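Review form for a predicted model. The reviewer records the input and the model, then writes brief findings.
Reviewer: anonymous (R2)
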Amino acid sequence: MFPFTRVSQVSANWLARIFLLATIALAATLGLGWMKIRHMMLALPPPPPRIDQLRPAPLRPVSPLLLQYHLDVPGRGEIFPALAAASPTDYWPAAILSITNTADRPALQVVHAEIEGYSRVLERTLIVGPNQTLTVPIVPDLLPAAFALEEIVTSPLTISVTNEDGSTAFARSQPVLLHSGSDLYWGKQFANAQLVARWVTPHDPSVLQLVSRAHHFIANGRMPGYSISERNARYLPTQVTAQAQAIFRAIQESGFAYVSSVFTFGGATDTSQRIRLPRETLSLDSANCMDISVAFASAIENIEMQPVIVIVPGHAFAGVRLGPGSPDILYLDLTVLPKGTFAQARARAEAWRKKVPPEKVLTVDVVSARRMHIYPLPTPGAPATAYQPIARVQ
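Model under review:
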């Protein structure tokens, strides 16, 4: 038994040594692994900041003595609602506010503006950099009440500027002249002529009634617009002419009579004009050349054809393309009404085209105007679709 006991003791000693060595190796491996992982973690980029950490630190208020304000009211203080949201070539904002910061740090400014009773409240938050001047066009969104005006009214334009702490830094009330919703400012050299397309209102109830009456003056009572089969495409000009004649007859039956232009008032008397909307023209027994041309164009657009309005010195007449995008146009001078014929209307329009030099002819293509976002004026009772965003701060 003695030899066996000695062997067992030797084996136990070896096993203990092996276990000790394994433990040391495992500990060393774990230690090296932890050091490697720690090194890798230290090499990783820091985690992104939380959203609340991204907020800029509040600006230190700038002394009011270091801020300067200047308010300018261009365009004689006159506002034409019809020009809103139409990107007019020659027009002006309601006011222009300049803010100058002479401090060595930025200033937070909040601008409020409103045309009392006729616009929404405009609010803009601005950062004026150190030693910087910001020019802010003031163009509040007009309410339907502005487009419903029939005469010029005076209303205060109130503008205020508050600092970051809410204190008032600037306040001014400036009277402005709001024109009738039917007044158009032509601009210098008729730069805004394309805006006549705003008076072309194809979905006005009075225009719908006019088109409904026109159905009685055409074969089969059909007003298909440009719709025609490919086999009969060569008859499209005849079909368009028949529909134009039906609308002519419907206007004639309404008892319309031609009168001279309706004038507008204000400081821009030489470059603005009162244009009646179709609902006014078709409810009265008289209208001028532009009024009746607009009414005719509205009915043409209602049946999805393409009207044009031609403006020559002292006169206007209408037309319709004989096909989608066609260069061929049927021109009509509707001032021959009420007694003149359709043929006479064609002849008088052609006479104008022949005697007026091309460089003095302005053609308002309604389809092109729509592509330029010149949309119909709002109809009564409907939300105002006219909107003019404030221009970019320069």
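Findings: Residues 64-178 form a domain with the Immunoglobulin-like fold (CATH 2.60.40.10).
Further findings: The chain has three domains: 2-54, 64-178, 185-371.
Recommendation: see findings above.
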